[in-house]
């Protein structure tokens, strides 16, 4: 089976885990400190706080920005359910908008929704590893006065112009779940440049002015995350090389993913589209190639949320599927995937 995700570790992770056991410092130690410092430096931000998951990072981000009963939070129609669930958990009211040709928040609709709903927070998602239109979203944030939380769970190292995902908004939220480009098993982080926001985040993490959860990670997770982070650049480059090959050889028959101009896509997932998606995915499965649909649902349908019309997301949802693009794919596996896809549609070109 060619798996769609393949977290891969080496001797140094094993050694680090053993050293932690022997040191008896299994939580709140130097690895957690090191990860926070290295991740902040990697993104070019002042503050990074690790937490136990991406969902918790999104929830704390919203609470730190003051989201409470009735506050509107705008999210895109296509994402993992945690994006919208974090809004409900924070007692906010989500409003769902459509996505653009890059699978990220549609800017024109965003402006309409902002005028209509006066949101406290807008939460773009860098879906599949491709950047949302952060420059214009931040422009609207200044103009209309809302906060921006970037759901960067799928975008470690992605970049638009001179800034990385998680460094554009008031807060960046990350996941280090096992399938992510930086895997810890489970884990998350919040990033910010703003000292006051950093102080508020801390209140949710370190027990402070109000009741809070324990959301810490262990030293094991932090060590694995740190060592994985050090390999991220090289791994993202390999993902991009595989994606380039897919796009070159498949775009005549499939709608292949587009890269936003001036951006660096990190291909957490390589997601393409075909009107006969079910048949194509089945044929991939028959050849032991793990292809999956991310996501079968739209966020407003899943949670019956307030929304604007979402024609793009509705079409994409019927046609999208993702194929393996992880950095440990062998060249022959990439060729097998391409060959299988081309065979599955040999009867006609996409229009
Ligand atoms: C876009 C997005 N947001 C949020 C999350 C939530 O992260 P976690 O699973 O670590 O809670 C994930 C991934 O799982 C995700 O893909």
UniProtKB/TrEMBL annotation:
Protein name stated in the entry: dTDP-4-amino-4,6-dideoxygalactose transaminase
Domain of life: Bacteria
Chain positions with N6-(pyridoxal phosphate)lysine modification: 180
Keywords: Pyridoxal phosphate
Native organism taxonomy: Bacteria, Pseudomonadati, Aquificota, Aquificia, Aquificales
SUPFAM superfamilies tied to this protein: PLP-dependent transferases
Alphabetical list of Gene3D superfamilies matching this protein: Aspartate Aminotransferase, domain 1 (3.90.1150.10), Type I PLP-dependent aspartate aminotransferase-like (Major domain) (3.40.640.10)
CDD domains: AHBA_syn
Protein's organism: Hydrogenivirga caldilitoris
